[in-house]
């Protein structure tokens, strides 16, 4: 870990309101995995965001918008997030979203395949479209037109846009986690 966890008592005046907002949002939307250290410090991507509150606050606002105003089916969201996390081998992201997927009933076989960058054969139509769009985007270049058209037909324009933004957000989350070497809780 390249950035130390910041205990609540050590927060600067600029960090305190962001910490409070993130802790509130985490408690209501990110409770399937460990996000807060015993001393109250935020873990995962929230810690690096807290270190640079102006930038981290902007990323947090995007995260809240993508999480709290989601319209895509959650199973499709989780597939896209796991495809993105697996592509970048972002340990905390995979840890966190595997926990969410397990709560939602995703099978061990499917999780294993997604984490191994393999498209599971048992995806429903929406999950399959989310996989294809996420896989194409994280592998670079312009999203192929057939992928975009299928996303439009499946999710509508707003949903297709949301899917692209979701993959972009989780690319940013992955870079944050990997760039600052954020560990899985209890590791190392």
What does this structure look like?
It is built from eight helices and no strands. The termini are close together. It is globular. The mean pLDDT is 96. The protein has two domains: 12-68, no CATH class; 74-179, AhpD-like, CATH 1.20.1290. It is mainly alpha-helical and 188 residues long. 65% of the residues lie in helices and 0% in strands. The protein has helices at residues 15-29, 46-51, 53-68, 74-88, 91-103, 108-115, 125-138, 145-179.
What's this model, at a glance?
The chain has about 190 residues and is mainly α.
CATH fold-level topology of the largest domain: AhpD-like
Order of helices and strands: HHHHHHHH
- Derived from helix and strand composition plus strand pairing, the structural class reads mainly alpha
Number of helices: 8
Rounded to the nearest angstrom, the distance between the terminal CA atoms is 10 Å
Largest sheet: none
What is the CATH homology-level superfamily of the largest domain?
A: AhpD-like
Helix proportion of residues, in percent? 55-70%
Please mark out the parts with pLDDT under 50 across 5 or more consecutive residues, or reply none. Answer: none
CATH architecture label name of the largest domain:
Up-down Bundle
Radius of gyration: 17 Å
Q: Determine the strand fraction and express it as a percent band.
A: under 5%
Which outline best applies?
Answer: globular
Overall pLDDT, averaged?
A: 96
The total beta strand count reads: 0
């Amino acid at each position: 870990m390249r950035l130390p966890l910041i205990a609540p008592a050590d927060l600067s005046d600029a960090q305190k309101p962001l910490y409070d907002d993130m802790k509130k949002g985490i408690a209501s939307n990110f409770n399937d995995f460990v996000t807060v250290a015993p001393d109250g410090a935020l873990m995962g991507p929230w810690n690096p965001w807290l270190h640079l509150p102006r930038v981290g606050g902007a990323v947090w606002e995007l995260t809240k918008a993508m999480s709290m105003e989601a319209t895509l089916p959650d199973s499709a969201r989780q597939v896209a997030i796991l495809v993105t996390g697996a592509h970048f081998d972002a340990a905390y992201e995979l840890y966190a979203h595997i926990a969410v997927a397990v709560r939602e009933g995703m099978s061990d076989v499917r999780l294993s395949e997604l984490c191994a960058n393999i498209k599971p054969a048992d995806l429903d139509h929406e999950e399959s479209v989310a996989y294809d769009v996420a896989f194409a985007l994280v592998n670079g270049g312009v999203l192929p037109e057939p992928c975009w058209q299928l996303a439009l037909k499946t999710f509508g324009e707003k949903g297709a846009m949301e899917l692209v933004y979701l993959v972009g957000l989780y690319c940013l989350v992955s870079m944050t986690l990997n760039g600052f070497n954020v560990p899985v809780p209890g590791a190392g």
